Amino acid sequence: MKYIIMADGKGSRWNHYMGHEKHEICIGGETLLQRTVRLLREKDAAAEVIITSHNPAFEVEGARRYEPKNNVLEIDRFTAELIGNDVCFLYGDVFYAESTLDTVIANRGFLPVAFFGNENSICAVLIRDGEAFKKCFYAVREKAACGEMPSCKGWQVYHHYAGMPLEGKAIGPCFICVDNSTRDFNSPEDYREFTGKN
Asked: I want to staple 114 with a disulfide (CB 3.0 to 4.6 A). Which of 22, 59, 89, 126 is the partner?
């Protein structure tokens, strides 16, 4: 299985809070990226782990860094040239509960494409059928590039795949809910809420 940790976002809402990028948030002595790579290695010894980023600071032992060829729209975090069969996209700004990664790994091979998260956020996309995912990815990207939709994220890809209206956040088929202690960090408020720091 190939795990791709997406860490090439602009981080505008984080705005270099505490003097570093959100992927470098340190919890329990590890950055988010280090923790995710370590857990993947512990849970899947044969894993190939790739961090997609143009930032050399995001080199992590146990993974290789890859610089995406295209990063114009937010949806481009799903690095098009790396989409294929037996690939899992994970988010570099997420603190993953171990049970969440256990759930993702346990679901390999069951659905052509499975999305993981909760009513607020998607934290992983597991792809057995790369062509099925590419079809949705490119359809949504084209709509965004033509100005037909203001938002172009994982939720829109999921909704397209599930045959749902593209806007908003709604859970339907092929969506697997995970442990709510898995949290993403988009803003300083997210970090302060998670850590209890002011």
From this structure: 126
Question: Which of the two residues, 4 and 70, has the higher pLDDT score?
Answer: 4
70, 73, 141 from 144: Cα distances, Å: 15, 8, 5
| Residue labelled with tokens 């894993």 | 47
41: pLDDT confidence band, cut at 50, 70 and 90?
Answer: very high
Torsion of CA 90, 31, 185, 158, to 10 degrees: 0
Terminal CA-to-CA distance of the chain, rounded, Å?
A: 40
The helix/strand/coil state of 77 is helix
Note the helical H segments in 51-185.
Answer: 98-106, 130-145, 154-162
Tell me the pLDDT tens digit for each residue of 49-79.
Answer: 999 999 999 999 999 999 999 888 888 999 9
Q: What DSSP element (H or E) covers 127?
A: strand 122-127
pLDDT for position 10: 67
Angle at which helix 154-162 crosses helix 130-145, to 10 degrees, equals 120
Angle CA(74)–CA(77)–CA(78) in degrees, nearest 5? 120
CB proximity list for 131: less than 8 A, separation 6 or greater: none
Output the pLDDT for position 12.
62
Residues 1 and 47 sit within 8 Å (Cβ to Cβ): yes
CA 150 → CA 13, 140, 166, distances in Å?
17, 11, 11
| pTM: predicted TM-score of the whole model, two decimal places | 0.93
